[in-house]
Design brief:
It is a single chain. By secondary structure, the chain is mostly beta strands. The chain folds into two domains: 33-142, Immunoglobulin-like, CATH 2.60.40.10; 149-272, Immunoglobulins (Immunoglobulin-like, Sandwich), CATH 2.60.40. 6% of the residues lie in helices and 45% in strands. It contains one helix and 17 strands. Strands 10, 12, 13, 14, 16 and 17 form a six-stranded mixed beta sheet that branches. Strands 3, 4, 5, 7 and 8 form a five-stranded antiparallel beta sheet that branches. β7 (121-130) and β8 (133-142) form a beta hairpin. It is elongated, with a radius of gyration of 33 Å.
Length: 273
Amino acid sequence: MKHNRLPLTVIIIFLSLMISCEKTGVIKESDPISDVNFHYLQASNKFFISAYASSQYQGSNLDSLMVLWQGVSSADTADTIRLFDNGTKGDMISQDQLYSRKIMNHSDSIKNIIPSSAKDSIYFSIMGLYGGKSVSQSLIFLLGNIRPKIGTVVVPDTVLRPTANPDPNIYNTIKFSVTATVSDPNGIDDVKRVFFRSYHVGKDSLMNGGNPILLYDDGEKDSSGDLQKGDGKFSRTISINENALVGIYHWTFEAQDVSSAYSDTVKKVLVVK
């Protein structure tokens, strides 16, 4: 009696098909939330968050996309902030699946505000709701460089121009000190320069050729007029002689850090009589 034998190659192909069928399963969907971005808009004291979200996940439609905002501490109870894809509240383009929001960094809007002294990281999660099921990502972003801040500025309100000296070869001069207190979350060494520009209202022109007049934190009392080095108080001794222009001056103070970020300006009015 004859026995039919399958060729060896056929048996190998058959076994391979059986093994591959056993390994076949449900293909896992990729994470529906991606491209998360955070920007701290210091000039307007706002921050911006955006994220891409798929319209469907595991057979369910996206109901909403939320930010669970903890701010500078991962231990804080989160603020819940909804992101939008309708071209409002900071979202640029409607229905592009990029959900965004611009949030005011103020206690009227959120509990976990970014304090002016913050310099390290911020914490939040993005949570999407798909048919009642939540999908989330926890994220940490570095705040990066934070702008310097000008605090107290001391300038006299009024200065009397000295009278003319009878000797034409000698000019009478008066001196006074100007001081600006400056802070920077990245450290006082991050402050590159502190300065002011002087504008004469009556002449409608900038003094000193429009160039900045520098203040110093060098402790060189006899030269710059600063009393103590590295204390964050930037000073300068200003001299006015008998030929100075009388009138109203607007002095605008600014600080700049090593990354070339500028503080908000502080304006003072000086009257020279």
